[in-house]
Amino acid sequence: AALTLTTAGTLLAGTPGQAAPTGWGRPIVTAAPQPGASGLGDTYFPDYGNGGYDVEHYDVRLRHDPATDLLTGTTTILATATQDLSTFNLDFLLDVESVRVNGWAATTSTAGVHEVVVTPARTVTRGQQLTIVVRYSGIPSETLVGGYTGWTRTDDGALAVNEPESAWWWFPSNDHPLDKATFDISVSVPTGVEVISNGVQPRPPAAEAGNRTRWIWRTTSPTATYLAFLAIGQYDIVTDTTPSGQPVVNAYSTSLGALGPAARASIERTGEIVDWCSGIFGPYPFETQGGVAGPVDGISFALETQTRPVYGPGFWRRGANTYVVVHENAHQWFGDSVSVAEWRHIWLNEGFASYAEWLWSEEQGEGTAQEVFDFVYASYPADDEFWQVLPGDPGAGRIFDNAVYDRGAMTLHQLRLAVGDDAFFEILPAWATEHRYGNGTVAQFQALAERISGLDLDDLFTTWLFTAGRPDVASAARKAA
Ligand code: ARG
Ligand code: ZN
């Protein structure tokens, strides 16, 4: 690709920001290149992501040592400038050794808690292609923000799995779901350690000097930064191919012991569950699938990491659990392919994935969605503080509150009752199709549901997503009817 090293404004009009001397009377004024914003204006997390450029691809090339948790690496970011830039930011926490922009050494400084400010040697112009090469190192498990790290060190390795902050501890990025990109992720580890990540392995793990092995993973569909992941440690990897030829990669931590069989019995059903989801939500959006059963000393949640969810060990304690597999795979449509435009729209992820579990219950003959609704509704007394959290605007500290999941699923059930099954099961795939690989807001979803149903759904959405207190079910249904 051609490198554009000129600052067009300067050549045409003299000193940026100043009136150029011209012979035509009216001075030409060019704006001086500005710093890229330190955030994308997310209501809950204003400094997440960065302004002024758009990333197309991350090439994350790492070396990890489980014995020390030392991570060293080089990430190459391919991006396009969306404005003239004097500086731009990356979201990142480890120690940056150097940054090059289109081959030229840049200077860097830090700002805020997770911002690296990059000053390129040459001004960047709008539309310019950028190749940003960042070399770095650090111990992610010891790199704390408010006492917290999104990188989990384990006995045998590590998990880079967290939401909404995950990338900060392992690759510099434009860390917001508005800026999706493709990924090549490669990690060198001591031979005998496994590395699992998103997508497919373009080639098998290859031996390197020093008794090490390099693992390479590739994701070819647009991916939000928080949905890229690493699982490093002792895993049994089981590969397969779906009837339609799609590669399946499942991985089971060897630390699971007695929990192992339940983990396998659950994650092995991913293909069946993805097919069932496809029947309701439309074609599966990605090129591969699977699941990772994380280690006993790892995470206490599950995450819909793209093409390959990661599950904490707790889900297997009462035996096989297909509901969590349904939840995380439903997120592949709602969360991963269609991502939130801002974190306050988290209901579009968690409400939908939770309602998928209710539909699965119905499918399994373990209770209809209506029966699950009645049970969940009754399980929160009217004076429970659960009803004070608004699923449509839960607050930055409550994006994973039970209300977002349970009242969120209740909302979709009320929508289904209001519009009828025909419209409801047209709305869900339409949402997945119309925003495929993109982003969405609650207002956009409401508009789509109104378009397909022909109903004014404002009362329903206001009552269920944006009003504190337990809605009266009978009256909610009556209003919408
Ligand atoms: N999206 C995840 C889920 O499906 C939520 C994980 C939240 N927990 C966390 N520690 N970040 O439930
Ligand atoms: Zn979820």
TrEMBL record:
Group of enzyme by EC: hydrolase
Start and end residues of each Aminopeptidase N-like N-terminal domain: 56-227
Peptidase M1 membrane alanine aminopeptidase domain boundaries: 321-464
Cofactor(s) this protein cannot do without: Zn(2+)
Gene Ontology annotations of biological process type: proteolysis
Catalysed reaction equations from the record: Release of an N-terminal amino acid, Xaa-|-Yaa- from a peptide, amide or arylamide. Xaa is preferably Ala, but may be most amino acids including Pro (slow action). When a terminal hydrophobic residue is followed by a prolyl residue, the two may be released as an intact Xaa-Pro dipeptide
Gene3D superfamilies referenced in this protein's UniProt entry, alphabetically: Neutral Protease Domain 2 (1.10.390.10), tricorn interacting facor f3 domain (2.60.40.1730)
Molecular function via GO: alanyl aminopeptidase activity; metallopeptidase activity; zinc ion binding
EC number assigned by the record: 3.4.11.2
Keyword hit for Protease: yes
Keywords: Hydrolase, Metal-binding, Metalloprotease, Protease, Signal, Zinc
Family note: Belongs to the peptidase M1 family.
Protein name per Swiss-Prot or TrEMBL: Aminopeptidase N
Protein source organism: Micromonospora chokoriensis
